[in-house]
Amino acid sequence: MLTEPPKPTATTPPDEPRTLSAQFTSSPRGARQARGHAVQAMGEWGFPPESDQSCAVALVVAELAANAVQHARTPGRDFAVRLTLDATADVVRIEVADANATKRPPETLPTTPPEGESGRGLLLVDALTQRWGTAPRHPVGKTVWADVSLDCPRYEDVSTGDCTGGRR
Q1: Residues 106, 112, 116: CA angle, nearest 5 degrees
Q2: Are 63 and 38 in contact (CB under 8 A)?
Q3: Using CA atoms, how far apart are residues 138 and 140, in angstroms rounded to an integer?
Q4: How far apart are alpha carbons 19 and 27 in whole angstroms?
Q5: Which of the 8 DSSP states describes residue 40?
Q6: What is the pTM (predicted TM-score) of this model?
Q7: How confident is the model at residue 31 (pLDDT cuts 50, 70, 90)?
Q8: Bridge partners for 79 per DSSP
Q9: Fewer C-beta neighbours within 10 Å, C or N terminus of the chain?
Q10: Coarse DSSP helix, strand, coil percentages of the chain, rounded to the nearest 5 percent
Q11: Hey, CA dihedral for 106, 82, 53, 13, is it positive or negative?
């Protein structure tokens, strides 16, 4: 029986980073839902879906969730996504946790021939983040994490959704 993942909660305590945590089925649908929830959280945190920051977070979540589903799927186990907005450091930490401790991303970025149809996901993650890596997940599995910089200036009117704040 297919069940809906619990609705993620975006919390905003006054002196702590904002977080979103949710679990998803280890399926392509679950990966799409993770991306959608990330975009929704970024919107709640003041970054419209079309903003550079929201797009970067959405792409990184999509790639890491797709990797968890495609390469690290463990039958009967979900994967979890956690986003943490640290406004002081201007960073969103993305964590995607799965139950497979043996399948880790490669230590070095893959080289993909131009005609290749896959193998560029980690290149995107590397290009869109300040840094990324893996950590053991207890009691079982691993967490792949990535830090997306929010160093674009934030303006009260972010209707343009780009890093120029409306300036061209």
Answers
A1: 130
A2: no
A3: 5
A4: 23
A5: H
A6: 0.76
A7: very high
A8: 24
A9: N
A10: 25, 25, 50
A11: negative
